[in-house]
Design goal:
There is one protein chain. This protein has 79 residues and is mostly helical. It has one domain. Helix 1 runs antiparallel to helix 2 and helix 1 runs parallel beside helix 3.
Length: 79
């Protein structure tokens, strides 16, 4: 099944580059199996740095952080 978004458009090269930077940041932060509050805050700040949060950025967070936390693949340490 193919899903599409309304008003979907092709990402610009700059947007693709920013998305890859965010992916690398998330993967680096979760590589040790623990996501700290500091790492979460850095990722959040990076997403908001350009004044907008895109659907693609939210999808990265969902797949690389939230789903892994839900399955126990990574631990959240916000202490």
């Amino acid at each position: 099944m193919k899903s599409e978004r309304l008003n979907q458009r092709e990402l610009t090269p700059e947007e693709k580059q920013e998305l890859e930077k965010l992916r690398a940041m998330i993967e680096s932060a979760t590589a040790d199996g623990v996501l700290t509050k500091y790492e979460r805050d850095r990722i959040s700040a990076a997403m908001r740095a350009d004044g907008k949060v895109t659907v693609e950025e939210l999808e990265l967070v969902r797949t690389l952080m939230q789903e892994k936390a839900a399955t126990g693949e990574i631990k959240l340490d916000y202490s």
